[in-house]
Amino acid sequence: MKVTSKYCCVVIFLLIYYFNHATIFAVSSRGTASSITTELYQVFLKKNGEVELCFADGRKIASLNAPILKYVNEDERSLKISAFDSYREPVRNNLSEGIGLYLRGKDFTSIVCLYPGNSFITVNLIYTNNTKKIQNVEKVIPLSGTLDLLSPELFNGVILDNGNVLETMVDFPQWSKELNSNRRSCWNLTVYDSTRGETILLGYLEFWNSYPIVELKKDNKNKKVLYRFECIYDPPRQLNPGESIITETIYLSFGDRKPIQALMRYGSSIAKFNKLRKNYKFVPHGWDSWSTSVGRDINEAIVLEELEFIDKNLKKYGWTNFAIDAGWERGPADWEPHPEKFPKGLKFIVDEIHKRGMTACLWVDLFTVPLNSNLAKEHPDWLVMPNAKGKLLIGDDKRILDVTIPEAYEYVKKICAKISKEWGFDGLVEADFVYHLLLGENYKNTNLTKVGVMCRGLQAIVEGLGEDKFLMSMVPLQISGKFADGLRIGFDNKPVWKSPIISGNFGCVESLTNFARRFYLFPFLGLPDQDCVFFGKEETYKRWKIPNDKKLTRSQIIAWATGTALTGGVFKIGDRFTMLNSEDIEILRKCLPRHLQPAIPVDLFENPYPQVWCLPIDRGDINGTILGVFNWDENAESNVLVSLENLGLDSEKFYALYDFWNDKFVGIVRNSFNISIPPASVSLFNLSLVKDEPIFLSSNHHYTMGMLDVTKFSYNPSSKELEGKMKVIENTQYKVTLYDVNKRSIKSSILSVPNGIVSQENGVITIQFYSPEGVNEVEWKINFE
Fold it and tell me: Do residues 143 and 229 touch, judged by C-beta distance below 8 A?
């Protein structure tokens, strides 16, 4: 046999790689054709073509069955793995470096990848039409099998899915303790087995072509739990001879003791794998006209009136965005300003907003085209019919824009370019109803699935708008998240605490619970928008037809505002600002600036409506844990036991506890503590580690309690001097609270603003001052005896 130098180099490389990566490979056991292993997992390919996934200690996790295909009008067909055609090879992708087991069959290659030092596994499938005929592929099941880690009879835990908007258009993540029926979820599904203390996470990393479904199914006959990944192609993919399908990458994770951490790792992996890099030049906190009493009756006079109020009362506290929602347009699918409502045009409005140092955003619905519109009459060839599901949602009197037609694609780009470049808007809040593109039939480009069509529609918006503009889009989140900066995560809100159904407008409980069950996607896919917060104005109640017994209480309003702040996302108000009273304004002053990291619902796998949300903040000299404890029940008090360990804190150490909304020092806690929460309300705390020196506890300015404002905080034990510096907002009253476990007596104090007061009582040090006009930073020095 002739051996060339080229092949010698390959052999040498593989030998070097083998000896330098000894932890990656496993010695094949008897009956095994090939295997790979890391410190966590082992994958065995048996000589009969069966594949098993095990922990490194040999405990079986799951079987990895050969792929399954379904052609149009045919039954599902299982493919076969050829054990002796399979091989191992190093892999490198956006996640990490690892080793892949390439499982091969006549028409496919399935790649199972392990990554040393990481707890995740990825799986890819490449299927090729090796026949001489055209194949119409309706569905690919790249991975399925038994999930041996779960016992249907002994299961005691929680199953959390990610909604199923692509199948039923009801996009509310389901939380269940039952493993007694099929569970089908879009994108991902997480199981926490509390008996074993282990997490199973099954998901996808990519969302380009198919409807990605994850399914769990109970096999009563064999007393097994079955899992299955489906890639559904709508319309079916037509494969010519020699053409291939590459399925979306699958992500697996097993055995994690902390399900919250497993979810957060999955969310960050999506961003890393898809190279999602968000650049938030601004976040559109502010007004959205649609949910207010204005509704579609928006006009120039109303905009200017609201703008003037925000400018004078709230702009300096971070409320700097003005979103003009539906009703501004000239007519159905006619994206010019209504001449009677906006006689001076929209550029005039945007200029007025920009003069005040604020940002302006606009609402559009570019893909839904009413038949009575000029667009439908002038370009009927650009439109497609909705399918049966689409007709139920949008009616028979509307069509869907076919963005696969180049002229229609350019039409979308031109409108968005006009909005941003000609009129000067800073973004879209929001590009509404983009999911209608999933409901069209017979798009001209038959090579694109409906998921691909939606991606194309979003791409047209981005190209026209400009990548430097803020784009708010909506469900399906994983598709929109590849293009958008902000994501509407559910239905429109209405001004009630609870909604009787989850398939209509959300109330506070549904809206914040929807976020909590999806917290791990943010900010990786974009900033969440749980929609508007309401302040209980009569005009708004009339607009939504809310009865007296469903109107919001003051405690419910505070809870809604607190929860929205803790999402780390976009904060919008659903009432006219000009109707807010001084108490409402005081609440809004305390909600910004935002921390772009979302709070973690630490009891997500204990409570279907998570009550305990924590937001760790570490800024060097200043650190603490913001803790929001909610009571969703409207009638009964809730007694909540909070574990420091569950908050990620050291349960053996002592922490000072401060109550933000009640503005008081609660005391010192260790290990765990009980909190009694009145019905339909929230308590917001900061926990700061007690040290042998004064510590920072809180500022009364906003919900992060000053930790985002303090730029210096240091204590010199030799001179017994405490120095502090913090950013402030002019013409604002401040109260800063510190704690000294040693209860040192204050000898003297100096503040950089006049008339400041420093006092101390039983270890609690209070600094009170007013920041004058033009002052944006305050310093203090406190000397102790």
Answer: yes
CATH number of 698's domain: 2.60.40.1180
Lookup: tokens for 336? 């010019």
Task: Find tokens 């180099």 and name the residue.
Answer: 9
Nearest CA-CA partner of 486 in 429, 534, 438, 533: 429
pLDDT score for 13: 37
CATH number at residue 173: 2.70.98.10
Domain presence at residue 494: no
Q: What is the pLDDT of residue 292?
A: 96
- Could you tell me which residues come within 8 angstroms of residue 332 by beta carbon, excluding any fewer than 6 positions away? 369, 370, 372, 373
Nearest-angstrom CA–CA distance, 474 and 477: 6
Among 246, 273, 300, residue at a domain's last position: 273
Instruction: With beta carbons less than 8 A apart as the criterion, state whether 125 and 131 touch.
Output: no
Exposure on the CB side of residue 427, measured as CA atoms within 13 A? 23
| Count of alpha carbons within 13 angstroms of residue 101, beta-carbon side | 32
Q: What's the total number of domains in the chain?
A: 2
> What pLDDT does 220 receive?
86
The Cα–Cα gap between 193 and 149 comes to 9
Q: Residues 568, 530: contact at Cβ < 8 Å?
A: no
Q: Which amino acid is at 95?
A: L
**Rounded to 5 degrees, what are φ and ψ at 13?**
-60, -45
Q: Is residue 213 in some structural domain? A: yes
pLDDT in tens, 325-371: 999 999 999 999 999 999 999 999 999 999 999 999 999 999 999 99
Q: What are residue 533's DSSP bridge partners? A: 573
The rounded distance, in Å, linking the Cα atoms of 417 and 300 is 22
In a domain? residue 442: no
Burial label, 339 (beta-carbon count in 10 A; 0-12, 13-18, 19+): exposed
486: Cβ–Cβ under 8 A, 6 or more apart, which residues?
A: 283, 284, 429, 430, 470, 471, 472, 473, 526, 527, 528, 529, 569, 570
How deeply is 618 buried, as exposed, middle or buried, from its count of CB atoms within 10 A (0-12, 13-18, 19+)? exposed
Per-residue HEC secondary structure of 48-77 comes to: CCCEEEEECCCCEEEECCCCEEEECCCCEE
Q: What is the pTM of this model?
A: 0.93
End residue of a domain, out of 249, 273, 297: 273
Q: Residue 467's closest CA among 437, 428, 433?
A: 428
Q: What is the pLDDT of residues 382-425, one digit of tens each?
A: 999 999 999 999 999 999 999 999 999 999 999 999 999 999 99
Please give the backbone phi and psi of residue 2, each rounded to the nearest 5 degrees, phi first. -85, 125
Beta-sheet pairing, 97-104 with 82-92: antiparallel
Please tell me the distance from the alpha carbon of residue 162 to that of residue 690, in angstroms, as a whole number: 39
Question: Cis link prior to 547 (omega < 30° from 0)?
Answer: no
CA 482 to CA 648: how far, in whole Å?
31
Which residues lie below 8 Å from residue 396, measured CB to CB, with a gap of 6+? Answer: none
| Pick from 765, 769, 778: nearest CA to 710 | 778
| Cβ pair 415, 346 in contact under 8 A | no
Range of the domain at 623: 611-784
| Residues, the chain | 785
DSSP state letter for 386: B
At 167 the pLDDT is 61
Q: Residue 597: what are its φ and ψ, rounded to 5°? A: -85, 135
201 burial via Cβ count (<10 Å: 0-12, 13-18, 19+): buried
User: Does residue 691 lie within any of the structural domains?
Assistant: yes
- For residue 422, the SS3 value is helix
Annotate 339-357 with DSSP letters as a single string.
TTT-TTHHHHHHHHHHHTT
